[in-house]
């Protein structure tokens, strides 16, 4: 299972830049009537992401996703070339919605919300093992590494840096701080515990991360 | 090369707890005369560590180490069961000496010294690629993961936490701070850039890590 998933990741770049974004397409029949293609696609991605995060790659099949989404296998294969392609798209779809970056105008509150959501995703769903194995495999797979940087960690870095830049404009954060470094000290610290799990990722850990870096640890 | 090295890592626990620590043993002839066994062993580890960090696992052979250390292959095989066992011991030997934790009585200075040394090790030697591949492989290899946690990341965490506890006793660091979390925000942040290299590990990065967490990033 894992190997076919990873195989797909190797062609992730092509896949992401390719045909997976569907603006128009077929319609699907279901008990409650015909649905627009965009809706069908969204429901397939919802089902794929949920199955992946709830049960992991071992339980992930096109048949299960089709059944959960009320779509045909033919429709799924029209938009995704393989099971792995669908899994990857479903994974990012699920993670993206869970990890939306809040903007309440209070950076401490927004960082706490975001890091706690990330910690929960890593520990209470299969996402933690999925992403840990992907990062692990990327250490000896250049194509996978490039795809992860370009489509996963790069865009997620940008969202966090942008949020901190807005906070600086509001006068909440200090001039001269490199927010890219702060990303490594918040999300990177979580990946450290995910990949070298000497200690668990907890709600308290997430809270301490934000507290330490915002206020400093000096006496 | 990598696979045989990793294979050895799987039996790392046995190896570390086993026969590799030599207190007495044979003596070795060399141009300048007979050397005590402990000295021979130290020179073999020096040569093994240097070869590994300078040239990587691809160039690592028992023959090369024997030649560099002025020892016989027979002597090396008396103490290390395989090339991988010697490589692993040499790696930790080399890393340990590079990453000694200074204790000058000034925690900011000591953290800067230590993190900068770690950053240099990861970027200017092969150690970065070696440890990245080990952590990567550990994501799907439970024995390797256990060995890394017990013999690598666990002991290194303890050194850092102990240094920060001494600083707190001196009144430099705040009460109530969980120093284990700070480890994730300093060394863990470096591993994040090592494993997901969107941005490089630089001297400036190392400096910013310490600055951010000690002083905080608030305006």
UniProtKB/TrEMBL annotation, chains A, B:
Pfam families according to UniProt: TetR_C_11, TetR_N
Alphabetical UniProt keywords: DNA-binding, Transcription, Transcription regulation
SUPFAM superfamilies: Homeodomain-like, Tetracyclin repressor-like, C-terminal domain
Keyword flag Transcription regulation: yes
UniProt key word Methyltransferase: no
Gene3D superfamilies: Homeodomain-like, Tetracycline Repressor, domain 2
Gene Ontology molecular function, alphabetical: DNA-binding transcription factor activity; transcription cis-regulatory region binding
Record's protein name: TetR/AcrR family transcriptional regulator
């Amino acid at each position: 299972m894992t190997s076919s998933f990873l195989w797909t990741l190797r062609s992730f770049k092509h896949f992401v830049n390719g045909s997976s974004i569907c603006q128009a397409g077929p319609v699907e029949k279901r008990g409650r009537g015909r649905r627009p293609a965009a809706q069908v696609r969204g429901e397939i991605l919802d089902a794929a992401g949920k199955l992946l995060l709830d049960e992991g790659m071992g339980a992930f099949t096109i048949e299960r996703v089709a059944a959960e989404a009320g779509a045909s296998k033919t429709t799924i294969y029209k938009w995704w070339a393989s099971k792995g392609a669908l899994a990857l798209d479903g994974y990012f779809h699920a993670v993206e919605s869970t990890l939306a970056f809040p903007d309440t105008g209070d950076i401490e509150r927004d960082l706490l919300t975001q890091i706690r959501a990330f910690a929960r995703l890593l520990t209470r769903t299969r996402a933690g093992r999925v992403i840990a194995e992907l990062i692990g495999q990327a250490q000896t797979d250049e194509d996978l590494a490039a795809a992860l940087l370009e489509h996963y960690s790069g865009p997620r870095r940008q969202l966090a840096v942008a949020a901190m830049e807005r906070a600086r404009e509001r006068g909440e954060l200090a001039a001269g701080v490199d927010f890219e470094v702060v990303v490594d000290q918040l999300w990177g610290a979580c990946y450290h515990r995910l990949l070298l799990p000497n200690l668990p990722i907890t709600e308290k850990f997430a809270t301490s991360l934000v507290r330490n870096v915002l206020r400093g640890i000096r006496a």
